[in-house]
Amino acid sequence: MAGTAVNTLYEDFEPFCKWQRDQGRDTLEVHLQGFKKDQLKIQLSNLGVIAITGERPLEENKISRFRKEIRLRKDSYKKNEIHARLTGGILCMVLPKKTPLSSSTQDQPTSLPPPKNQEDEKSSNKDRENAVCRLRNLVLNKLQILTSKKNMGRNVAVAVALVMVLGAFLVYKYGHPFQSHVEN
């Protein structure tokens, strides 16, 4: 290791995020193709900010990384019940909503039928949630975005170079575009 310096190159990117708003919960989908669970970190601050970060190796000395921060609305979610699952390159984060305390009694039903079995109900909700995430993942895996910021930057640089070469050729071929044509 003496005498050899390894320069690590970081390729930062902004993951695609999509919200699904429901009455009892919100679901955030973060598209993280190629990432594994152990390459991700999710933190919830006391100020209500969720920080999602991740790093994964691309090549020998190249690392892909991101940082996504989401500010939650104050007192909107049950923070102790927030959970996430990574399936097929998509992180599904479920944020259960708090029930409003000041809702009118007319809007609420007077009696609810008791659930058959609370454990069955919870597991069937998780099964539905997982099935929805898997289906979305399947569809979105087929529609992957193939360009990264690096490729986009390279394409822009090539386009700018081509425009400059074309401009130089036109000036050479047809003369300077700002020559004044003054007749005596």
Protein architecture, described:
With 184 residues, the protein is of the alpha+beta class. The chain is 28% helix and 29% strand. It has a domain at 10-98: Immunoglobulin-like. The chain has helices at 118-142, 149-174, and strands at residues 9-12, 17-21, 25-31, 40-44, 49-59, 62-71, 83-87, 90-96. A four-stranded mixed beta sheet has the order 1-6-5-4, with no helix packed on it. A four-stranded antiparallel beta sheet has the order 2-3-8-7. A hairpin with a 4-residue loop joins strand 4 and strand 5 (49-59). Residues 102-111 and 141-149 have low confidence and may be disordered.
Short description:
The chain is an alpha+beta fold and 184 residues long. The chain has helices at 118-142, 149-174, and strands at 9-12, 17-21, 25-31, 40-44, 49-59, 62-71, 83-87, 90-96.
Which features would summarize this protein structure in a list?
28% helix, four-stranded antiparallel β-sheet, Immunoglobulin-like, alpha+beta, single chain, 184 residues, 29% strand, four-stranded mixed β-sheet
Number of helices, where a helix is a run of at least 4 consecutive DSSP H or I residues:
2
**What string gives the helices and strands in order?**
EEEEEEEEHH
Shape category: elongated
Oligomer description = single chain
Got a strand count? 8
> Can you tell me the CATH architecture of the domain at 10-98?
Sandwich
Task: Return the structural class.
Answer: alpha+beta
Strands ordered across the widest β-sheet: 1-6-5-4
Major sheet details: 4 strands, mixed
State the share of residues found in helices, binned by percent.
25-40%
| Global Rg | 27 Å
Report the span from N to C terminus: 76 Å
Q: Report the CATH topology name of the domain at 10-98.
A: Immunoglobulin-like
* The CATH class of the domain at 10-98: Mainly Beta
Strand content: 25-35%
Mean pLDDT: 76
Note poorly predicted spans. Answer: 102-111, 141-149
GO biological process, one term: cellular response to heat
Transmembrane segments: 156-175
Keywords: Membrane, Transmembrane, Transmembrane helix
Family: Belongs to the small heat shock protein (HSP20) family.
